[in-house]
Design a protein that fits this description.
- The chain is built from 10 helices and 5 strands; from the N terminus they run E-H-E-H-E-H-E-H-E-H-H-H-H-H-H.
- It is an alpha/beta fold.
- The chain has 2 domains: 136 residues, 3-Layer(aba) Sandwich (Rossmann fold), CATH 3.40.50; 62 residues, Winged helix-like DNA-binding domain superfamily/Winged helix DNA-binding domain (Arc Repressor Mutant, subunit A), CATH 1.10.10.10.
- The longest helix has 15 residues.
């Protein structure tokens, strides 16, 4: 039996996932978490075989949670679930140690297949993402500007492009306004841009935000 922990801040999403997995004879949902901190707190107690993790949650984000999980339990498979298209986060989370990436609009049977595959030590990605990963390994010269950002810089870039102020980003990430301003300055420098408007236009053009 594959013991699953679901981490998602939306109760309706968690309930829907449980209903899907209830039809699988070899999968059991043993725990739920509604924040990253809640997940990290419950992890030692429940000892799941696989974690279903939403990439966007309040407080500590899914990417940071993933890194902490991998530092605590490197062999524990973490399957990322997201409402965002693959091009926004998939390659980044896979490089951070995720065992797979699945969008929430995927067919229910894909979720079951993905859980079984990552639990057996495999990786679960779509064929289109596999092609992008192969291309990504080809040469840094083909990378887009945002792919040279650190994970935190990328997170801040996306939040700026969503129209959030420096203060709002600082509050969400539990960091100081000065720290966020420093990240913003680094982003502008690395991407050779002058202001938030240019960053937002770039993010929209590259499908980083809806």
């Amino acid at each position: 039996m594959i013991r699953i922990m679901i981490a998602d801040d939306h109760p309706i999403v968690r309930e829907g996932l449980k209903q899907i997995l209830a039809g699988a004879h070899d999968i059991q949902v043993i725990a739920e978490a509604d924040t990253g901190y809640d997940l990290l707190d419950k992890l030692p107690k429940f000892q799941p075989d696989t974690i279903l993790l939403d990439i966007k949650m309040p407080g500590i984000g899914g990417l940071d949670v993933l890194k902490q999980i991998k530092s605590l339990k490197p062999e524990l498979p973490v399957l990322i679930l997201s409402m965002h298209p693959e091009e926004q986060y998939a390659i980044r989370v896979l490089k951070a140690g995720a065992a797979g990436y699945l969008t929430k609009n995927s067919a229910p049977e894909k979720l079951v297949d993905a859980i079984r595959k990552v639990n057996q030590g495999g990786k679960y990605i779509s064929s289109s993402l596999a092609e992008r990963l192969a291309f990504d390994l080809d040469s840094d010269s083909h990378k887009s500007s945002h792919e040279f950002l650190s994970d935190r810089e990328y997170q801040v870039l996306c939040m700026i492009a969503q129209g959030k102020t420096v203060s709002e980003i600082a509050d969400t990430l539990k960091l100081s306004v000065k720290t966020i301003s420093t990240y913003r300055a680094r982003i502008l420098e690395k991407m050779k841009m002058k202001n938030n408007a240019e960053l937002t236009y770039y993010a929209i053009q590259n499908g980083l935000v809806e």
